[in-house]
Amino acid sequence: MAKISIKNLSLEYSDGTESLQNISLEIPARAITVLFGPAGGGKSSLLRVLNRLNDLADVIRIEGEVQLDDLDVLSSQTDVIKLRRRVGMVFARPVVLPFSIQENLTYGLEIAGEKDRYALESAVETSLKKAALWDEVKQRLDDPATSLSGGQQQRLCLARVLALEPEVILLDEPTSGLDPISTAKVEESLKKLKEDYTVVLVPHSVQQAARTADIAAFMLQGKLIEVDSGDKLFTNPEKQTTQDYIEGRFG
Amino acid sequence: MPKPTRSRHLIQRIGFSVLTLGTILTVIPILAVVVYIIIQGMPAISWEFITGFPEDGMRAGGIWPAIVGTFYLTLGTAVFAVPLGIGAAIYLAEYAPSNRFTQLIRIAIINLAGIPSVVYGLFGLGLFVLFLQFGTSILAGSLTLSIMTLPVIISTTEEALRAVPQAFRTVSISVGATKWQTIRKIVLPEALPGILTGVILGLERAAGETAPILFTVAAFFLPQLPNSPLDATMALPYHLFVISTQVPGMPIKIQYGTALVLLVFVLGMNTIATVIRSRARARRQW
Questions:
Q1: Residue A223 to residues A20, A40, B62: CA-CA distances in angstroms?
Q2: Model confidence at B186, in pLDDT bands (50, 70, 90)?
Q3: Taking 90 as the threshold, does the pLDDT of residue A159 lie above it?
Q4: Overall domain count for chain A
Q5: Does residue A188 fall inside a structural domain?
Q6: CB of B188 within 8 Å of any CB in chain A?
Q7: What is the ipTM of this complex?
Q8: How far A196 CA lies from chain B's nearest CA (Å)?
Q9: pTM of this prediction?
């Protein structure tokens, strides 16, 4: 059974930009699902529906159904705070909060009411190890997070999400500002993470999509053009448009 | 065709000279005022002048009651204006929808800042002294000064809040924080130096104003210190006005001595604001 099930999802912003049109998609657990396509295709919008971050944007119409296990994500009854702890998000630009490295990681837990120092410390260590950052920062957890390099900051952002022990991790072009070595490190972490989490990635290039995708979904102008396993979609897509985009004929 | 290098350099040098000259011309009068007041006022400054009561129709003795009065008025203004102003700014920056109504509020605040202080004084007399029957009192004076100070506090606080990167808010919300948690844990601490600067600048203006306290609190001469918020009090700016215009045969050094004390009071607050701001700037790294 799919971890996240999206049925006939449509979305429109008040300024008419980047709407989603009748998207249906099943996102399996313990795999990397990649949403790719040219800019303005609705990938970020779709991502932000899954943790209801779109609540902050000027959405004028949203229709359809999104299920996370048994939870009706779009329902007004849904506790978005709990939802966002289950569905974490990493953004394109690494945004570290203006605290120390350690406080960046404990922030989410503390606002959720966790006070036990031992639990907080162990969450810091576990999440940093999962994000492959522990060895680099274990000596200086009290330094300001801004003292880290860009690549380290992005892995800290990933660790911040992991510290909350979510079920789903959304990544919106997480490597767009990173050099190739840092990018490789993040991709490597993702491949390990999919053993335990449902990963939904908006990649910053077709190449990254092809490298990482278990499931690949090609989106164009708010429509879902084609979904298939990564191996199949990048070697032998069904639709001509998909083929053209992958081969770099547009976009 | 680009101009020859030589002529471009010349234009640049003329430009620099004009700007430098402008800067010097601006600074000279400010320095002159301060230096002149120090030279004229220093001879009056003594322990007795600071801590003593006025004597001989204010022609001798000290200005302690006026110093205490200005301190109380500034404190009273802070008590009313700071929570109200910061609260209003948080609403405007973080919660208010952008519609006609909030636009109207913003325009009102900006215009409030432009109202002449004597009008605030008259308003304070009508509302606090007479209608609410607070009498000529520290309470009425502080409330009047608060209303005058609010626009400064609101607009600087709002600006400080808006300067906090939007991304911090998004990240905080995305890890499950509520809007209020985000404001309290991230936005307010980040904006605090800017807020404090605005608060101090606002209070500093309140401390130095004469017109708003003229009808609402200030006493020409009081032989004792105020005992409660409902007492009238002497205050430095009004005292300066009185001894400069209303008392014949006033020694000039007492006038300038009083001016110097007021100047130190206000510049002292200013210095605190500057220190807070520069410290915060040194710490900030994003």
A1: 6, 11, 81
A2: very high
A3: yes
A4: 1
A5: yes
A6: no
A7: 0.88
A8: 19
A9: 0.83
